[in-house]
Design a protein that fits this description.
By secondary structure, the chain is an alpha/beta fold. Helices cover 39% and strands 25% of the residues. The longest helix has 18 residues, at 125-142.
Length: 264
């Protein structure tokens, strides 16, 4: 059974159709790479999945639970939206860390905010805080940042900030981890650091959706690839099909640029 089912998602901003009849599914433990030119709708799709944007049409299901049916009345309860958002962990391309918090505090923050909603929070505050802190430290060590936990974002490299952001996304144990061009703000050396972490997560069967311009990485780590163009899914299939034998002319044109540069 698919862990994620997306059916006929559409999104319009003012008079611009950004997403047009988007449908796909993802199995547990799979990695989906989404590629395409800038402006093709990739980031908007991730934002819709993470409930930072609401689709105008369509359905989103996780583990056979309908999180969104755009045809039904919209909920205005923030708690309800937060609950749905927990199914997805989103790693932004520009990290989006809080500059006033250390690496450890950035990873702990979301879970601490959720913990305060628990009925036993006041009586177990110290115990809950210790549990959250231990988990954050474990995740930061997993990211190779065991010696940088007390550093603030300005004391970290871009690659280190992105690894803190990945730890933060993992802290809430989402069903699906989403990456929005996680290396676009990094130089080549730091890009390698972050891609190595994502590859390790893939090897651990973490279910992921990765929007990326790193074509070699998309080919090597993904179980399936989607090529988006002008708001549509123009082509999707396994990496060998998309990268070695694309059917659509636009897919061929897009990939030809990278092939000319010997990127894959």
């Amino acid at each position: 059974m698919a862990i994620l089912e997306v059916e006929h998602i559409e999104k319009t901003f003012e008079h611009t159709e950004v997403l047009k009849d988007i449908s796909f599914s993802l199995e547990k433990g799979q990695v989906l790479s989404i590629i395409g030119s800038s402006g093709s709708g990739k980031t908007t799709l991730l934002r819709c999945l993470n409930f930072l944007e609401r689709p105008d049409k369509g359905i989103i299901r996780v583990n056979d639970e309908t999180l969104l049916d755009a045809s039904l009345p919209r909920t205005r309860q923030e708690a309800e939206i937060r609950k749905k958002r927990l199914h997805f962990g989103l790693v932004f391309q520009s990290f989006n860390l809080f500059p006033q918090y250390t690496a450890r505090q950035n990873v702990m923050l979301a879970k601490e905010l959720l913990a305060k909603e628990q009925p036993d929070y006041k009586t177990r505050k110290k115990e809950i805080h210790a549990e959250i802190e231990t988990q954050a430290e474990t995740l930061l060590k997993q990211m190779g940042l065991g010696d940088r936990m007390d550093n603030y974002p300005h004391q970290l490299s871009g690659g280190q900030c992105q690894r803190v952001a990945i730890a933060r996304a993992l802290s809430l144990q989402p069903d699906i981890l989403c990456f929005d061009e996680p290396t676009s703000a990094l130089d080549p050396e730091l890009t390698g650091e972050v891609l190595k972490v994502i590859k390790e997560l893939a090897d651990e069967n973490t279910t992921m959706i990765i929007v990326t311009h790193e074509m070699a990485f998309a080919r090597d780590v993904a179980n399936q690839v989607i090529f988006m163009d002008d708001g549509y899914i123009l082509e999707q299939g396994d990496p060998a099909q998309i990268f070695e034998n694309p059917k659509e002319e636009r897919t061929k044109q897009f990939l030809a640029r990278y092939q000319a540069e010997k990127i894959f």
